Amino acid sequence: METALKAEAPQTAAKGRPDAVPRAHKDAVSAPKLPTLTRDQLSSLGIACLSLTIGVLLWHLVTSVNLDFYINFSNVPSPAKVFMAFVAHIQTEIFWTHIGVSMRRILISYSIAVVLGIGIGLIMGRSKFARAFIMPYIEVIRPIPAVAWIPLAILMWPTEESSIIYITFLGALFPIVLNTLHGVEQTPEVLVRAVQSLGASRWAVFRHVVIPAALPSIAAGLAIGMGVSWFSLLAGEIISGQYGIGYFTWDAYSLINYQDIVVGMLVIGLLGTASTAAVRAITRPMLKWQERTR
């Protein structure tokens, strides 16, 4: 009898302690929840995969028959050849150097464009004088393509690296400025007046009303600016670069290496898509209020 009581005593004491939860139960409670895809997201992902598969099959078909009907596909490499060339390149150090140099240039120039672009757009949106003073410069410089800036940028900046970053910066700047300006202009005036009637200062109105209302347009401008920055970067690398994925693609064209041309194009597309997706992922937490109002 005493032995049975002694055996039950630790069990009873363990039940009374809050820290006596089984380890498996603790792990199950503390384990982080993995993100799950909704049915609509899975459907969109499936359609995207199907679309890409059809595109690759059509690419294989027109290159296998050497289609020459207005558009000539006789010199276009097949998907298999491009894939084999890509596998060979990712095993070399120089290929990753090209990608790393391009990513570094994008990071530097895009970061500067984000800071200046959002700041200029906010100021122009809230000040009629600033808008009237700055807008002529934007309207004159914005239509100039990146390629046209290359000779002057080389003359202006001390190194080719700084000139490429400058050209890339210009490409990202204007979409960010204009979208930020549009977002500020679309701020409901009734909200501004309501906050002012409660005694809010101009800074409080700007911080708690104008900026949150402009965030959707700012996020769109950031995504568009990332795509344009890649276009501008490649133009600079093709003309005056020694490294970078744009230089890699142009060098392949100079050597009449068709597989590498397509490899460079596809890598540019993948990097641009990944960069834009990263921008959207970063800005998504700031737009959660939109989901709650739907």
The largest pleated sheet is described as:
2 strands, antiparallel
Total helical segments: 13
SSE order: HHHEEHHHHHHHHHH
The assigned CATH architecture of the largest domain is Orthogonal Bundle
Q: Tell me the distance between the termini.
A: 67 Å
Query: Could you please say which CATH topology of the largest domain applies here?
Result: MetI-like fold
Question: How helix-rich are the residues, as a percent range?
Answer: over 70%
Which residue ranges are poorly predicted, with pLDDT under 50 across at least 5 consecutive positions?
Answer: 1-18, 24-29
Mean of residue pLDDT values: 83
Roughly what fraction of the amino acids lie in strands? under 5%
Domain ABC transmembrane type-1: 99-279
Region (Disordered): 1-26
Subcellular location: Cell membrane
Keywords: Cell membrane, Membrane, Transmembrane, Transmembrane helix, Transport
What does this structure look like?
This protein is mainly α and 294 residues long. It folds into two domains: 42 residues, no CATH class; 216 residues, MetI-like (MetI-like fold, Orthogonal Bundle), CATH 1.10.3720.10. The chain is 80% helix and 1% strand. The chain is built from 13 helices and two strands. It has a two-stranded antiparallel sheet with strand order 1-2. A hairpin with a 1-residue loop joins β1 and β2. α8 runs antiparallel to α10, α10 runs parallel beside α11 and α10 packs antiparallel against α12.
